[in-house]
Amino acid sequence: MRPIIGVACTKMYFPKNDLDQFFYVGSGYVNGIARSGGTPLILPLLTIQDAPFREMIESLDGLILSGGEDPSPHLYGEDPLQGLGDINYERDITELEIIKIALELKKPILGICRGMQILNVACGGTLVQDIPSQVPGALQHAQKGSRQYGAHKITLQPGFVADALGKTEVLVNTSHHQAVKDIAPGFKVTGCAADGVIEAMESLDGLHVGVQWHPERMWAHDDDMLKIAEAFVARVKQQKLQAAK
């Protein structure tokens, strides 16, 4: 059976409608999972009391944490700096809860951009709040060209991403101004840009992976980048089989 993989979404108001909020997530996430042999399921950002988060995560075989707003800095023990962008605290507390449950149930997790950052925060790590003002000599991490194509190279260390891509250096797109600072306990850094910004990380048991770029924007036309989705679906299948024994 195709594994069921939840894609965490957020909420927004559409133009000319400030009364109703809508759940949304980029189509690239779900298309990549479907192309890779998984069954994608959009996971709503519920803010109601007694939301059935445990039942939601129990129904999944794996979880993708998508991109979006900056995580709230007080969650990792810092005050907001001038360079901090928009935050969505309701999303933060919801995702912290679903991550906690997914970790407890040993569900594989793939965090993308903000998803990598909130995964790191949930597990005890910290963030660079604003790369341009905090990282001397930083590259341009919010590219001004088409975000479907690569902008700068990263170097990969042995781990999930290097294994999936079969490379130790790869050209990635970039659309962020925050990054992982102190890696969470139980995780290791597996990718960095030339300026030292952390671009990939994974748990020591290999179940939980984060990438700082947006492969879902690239894998529509880049079969190499699609290998990340394929490898994640394969990891989810493997974990599902082990859990059934």
UniProtKB/TrEMBL annotation:
InterPro entries: Class_I_gatase-like (IPR029062), Peptidase_C26 (IPR011697), PuuD-like (IPR044668). One of its GO terms (biological process) is polyamine catabolic process. This is Gamma-glutamyl-gamma-aminobutyrate hydrolase. One of its GO terms (molecular function) is gamma-glutamyl-gamma-aminobutyrate hydrolase activity. Keywords: Hydrolase. GO terms for cellular component: cytosol. It comes from Brevibacillus fortis. It comes from the Bacteria. Pfam families: Peptidase_C26. SUPFAM superfamilies: Class I glutamine amidotransferase-like.
